[in-house]
Design a protein that fits this description.
134 residues; alpha+beta; Immunoglobulin-like; four-stranded antiparallel β-sheet; 2 helices; globular
Length: 134
């Protein structure tokens, strides 16, 4: 009887561990998008995050002129990740692995800001799971 109790306990522990692993994996989102708008302009961005490499790749779909840079910011407007040292519509850049982990875990807590010569954060959009443009 005693061994049956241990087996049941081990099985329950294993199931709990498996469930936790699945729940954790379910919170990571390596493909994100954002619809961008501001100052009468519109556009979108698609992001591919790779936490193991510490890399974010992006593709912007914008017609706005005079873009100087882009970044991912938290709800307080603090920069979490710069998308390159200068603006490129399509590129990849190295980002702190911890920052990528935070963004993947709660994408809706972050926004992409696109800066122009006239305004910082001229175009903005909240991140969501999935691609903005298919």
């Amino acid at each position: 009887m005693r061994s049956k109790g241990r087996v049941a306990t081990l099985a329950a522990t294993a199931m709990l561990a498996l469930g936790t692993g699945v729940a954790w994996a379910g919170t990571m989102h390596p493909e994100l998008g954002a619809q961008l708008a501001g100052m009468g302009q519109k556009g979108s961005v698609d992001l591919q995050l790779n936490e193991k490499k510490g890399e974010i790749c992006w593709t912007f779909h914008l017609t706005t002129k005079g873009i100087t840079g882009a970044s991912i910011r938290d709800t307080g407007g603090m920069v979490v990740a710069k998308l390159g040292s200068a603006y490129h519509a399509k590129d990849c850049g190295m980002v702190a692995k911890h920052a990528i982990s935070l963004i993947e875990a709660k994408p809706a807590s972050y926004q992409v800001w696109v800066d122009t010569k006239a305004h910082v954060g001229d175009l903005r959009g909240k991140l969501f799971v999935g691609m903005a443009r298919m």
